[in-house]
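re the bet — no i am not wrong, look at it urself. input seq straight from the record:
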Amino acid sequence: MSLKGFFFLVRPLNAFLAGFTVLIGAIAALSSPIDEFQVLGIIIGCITTSLLAMGGYVINDVFDIEIDKINAPHRPIPQGEVTLNQAKIYSLLFFILGVSSTLLIPKIQILSFFLALFGGILLYLYAAYLKRQGILGNITIGILVAIPFIFGGFLTESLAMIYPASFAFLINVGREIIKDIEDVHGDQIQDVKSVALKYGVKPARNLAFLILFSLVIFDPTPIFLSVYKTPVFIILLITIDLIIIYTAFLLFNKTDEEIIANTTLSKRLLKTCMSLGVIAFVIEGLSNVLDILLST
């Protein structure tokens, strides 16, 4: 086993970013200043999520070995830099470390433990089975992306995490379906049961935008409830909704091949929406805490 192969396998930068989303979720859910126990919990939560992400990346490569031999022969397992048995042990080790690390979190160890266990099991099932099951795989990705935001909300003991978690879930499920449209020709070869392959490109597009437009409708809820109210949040929210509407324009009234050709730009635009959403929720969370500190 080479050190380079190990690092390539666990994707440390991606794992760090996965852990960082717990911090983002915690900040987005802030409604009051936090104490030192919650700060410690957030730090451990970031580590927990990074470890679970590493386990997920490794087990994904284990189950994708035959595909990677053809599509990505440079990956560590096909190249022989990491053996299949070593990869299985690494994934199990990261999952165990990730789940067990939650027992160090003050106050909510049991809740954190079961949330991490659920996330670890879902990562395994996605790699082993759900990835190729169309809408079930899409929904699984949405849940996995939403979990760190939920985790962050638990760690700050705030129910406001429902808003960033719902945003992350809906926009990722919609984007995953659009990705399946882009990959429809390749999925025919790999026997992936995507919505686009099973029902057609246009029905898949319609489902994607039913989900994305439900996000547009849901978006203003925290504003109406005065949970989030800064001008920056409102402006970013409007920008996100306009980008989603423009994305719909790119994919409607088009032939199947035109829709497939436009999915790359659509995915990039939705990824921009994700980044803007993160910025909006972080700014709002910090603003809430600042207001509380200034009023005390």
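see?? The first helix runs from residue 3 to 10. told u. also The domain at 1-157 is CATH 1.10.357.140 (Tetracycline Repressor; domain 2). so pay up
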